[in-house]
Write a structure and sequence with these properties.
16 strands, 194 residues, mainly beta, 1 helix, 16-stranded antiparallel sheet, single chain
Length: 194
């Protein structure tokens, strides 16, 4: 025991490396590793299906990887005070990635099935965009560039397209293309003008 303690002390002082392995039951294991003052890693297994790895490689960088079932996986990464990313998979078909790269910028990417995808983006307090695809033929893009500007682009089939634009409280335009070469443009530029 004295030799073991001496070995740990020398390892901690000369190599700045510390490792602690703990097993509290046949299913529970934990490994704590410190390879430098800034680098730490904690690896935990509390059951055959549950694993967690926590890593810190600098004061600003932190990563947490968790798996609570064969289908569920979550990765949380922070590379700076402003940058955060959360990746989650709850089933083979469901994936979600949430990214924040600044106080104003946020992006959420979601896939809930092979055909359904959604991307939500915010690049400033006034700019928002939502892109949704619910089937191979259906696509919708909603964009807001300012409090007054809104645009909705929808494709529900290869032949049907619609663009709805609002440039101001008084201005509205709807452009529709449906099958059989049918086009329609409805414009309102003021309460009295249509």
């Amino acid at each position: 025991m004295s030799d073991l303690k001496a070995s740990l002390a020398v390892s901690g002082i000369c190599q700045n490396h510390l490792q602690i392995i703990t097993r509290s039951s046949p299913d529970h294991h934990q490994i704590i590793i410190r390879s430098s003052p800034d680098h730490h890693q904690i690896i935990t297994r509390s059951s055959p299906d549950h694993h967690q790895i926590i890593s810190r490689s600098s004061p600003d960088h932190l990563q947490v990887i968790s798996r609570s079932s064969p289908d569920y996986l979550q990765i949380i990464s922070r590379s700076s005070p402003d940058h955060l990313q959360i990746t989650s998979r709850s089933s083979p078909d469901h994936l979600q990635i949430i990214t924040r790269s600044s106080s104003d910028h946020l992006k959420i990417i979601t896939r809930s099935s092979p055909d359904h995808h959604q991307i939500i983006s915010r690049s400033s307090p006034d700019h928002h965009q939502i892109i949704s695809r619910s089937s191979p033929d259906h696509l919708q893009i909603i964009t807001r560039l300012s409090p007054d500007y809104l645009q909705i682009i929808t494709r529900s089939s290869p032949d049907h397209h619609q663009i709805i634009s609002r440039l101001s409280p008084d201005h509205l335009q709807i452009i529709t293309r449906s099958p059989l070469d049918h086009h329609q443009i409805i414009t309102r530029s003021s309460p009295d003008h249509h």
